[in-house]
Task: inverse folding
């Protein structure tokens, strides 16, 4: 059996906003110092070091909102088996990273994503945004995330929450520039023709 815990970002506003929502989706208030001590003691806490840097993840759990999972079975002594760091900004949730230690049961990453989606619905968030290494993008695509075609890097992914708005891709400026150039050239030629006719008279 596993239990989900949450820690809100270090601000009164964030705590008032996210604490009731986390408790409504079945999470228990956690302890940041306990989590940090556990993660710092396990250098291999992030199973896929290529997908997410252990050091950057450890830094992200210092002040951000955090969701983590404990294994409550007696023989595990409540080990932390998964953790993710997020920021809630207006109508968006940014996932800074999801870490699951090597050798843990399957489904922990999916459980964390499910809880974030439930949280997004309660907070009326429109989009969940993350950056994922190509090696793990397939996992997020199975959970409904799509690649951002408007970003220059091939790592951005977005999940549209039910009722949320899709971002329309921006049109290339090149077409716009060509159109403007054509208009300017056409106007210049037209004006030149008018001036020539006027001079002939």
Result:
């Amino acid at each position: 059996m596993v239990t989900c815990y949450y820690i809100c970002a270090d601000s009164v506003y964030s705590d008032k906003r996210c604490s009731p929502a986390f408790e409504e989706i079945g999470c228990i208030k956690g302890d940041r110092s306990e989590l940090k001590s556990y993660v710092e003691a396990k250098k291999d806490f992030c199973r896929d070091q290529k997908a997410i840097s252990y050091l950057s993840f450890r830094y992200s759990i210092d002040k951000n909102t955090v969701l983590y999972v404990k294994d409550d079975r007696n023989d595990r002594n409540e080990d932390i088996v998964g953790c993710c760091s997020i920021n809630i900004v207006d109508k968006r949730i940014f996932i800074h990273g999801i870490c699951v230690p090597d050798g843990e049961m399957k489904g922990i990453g999916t459980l964390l994503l499910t809880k974030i989606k439930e949280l997004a619905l309660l907070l009326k968030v429109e989009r969940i945004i993350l950056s994922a290494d190509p090696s793990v993008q397939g996992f997020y695509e199975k959970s409904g995330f799509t690649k951002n075609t408007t970003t220059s890097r091939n790592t951005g992914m977005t999940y549209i929450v039910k009722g949320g708005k899709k971002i329309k891709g921006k049109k290339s400026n090149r077409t716009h520039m060509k159109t403007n150039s054509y208009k300017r050239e056409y106007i210049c030629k037209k004006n030149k023709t008018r001036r020539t006719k006027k001079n002939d008279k």
Summary: The two ends are 95 Å apart (CA to CA). Confidence is low (pLDDT under 50) at residues 169-184. The chain is about 40% helix and 25% strand.
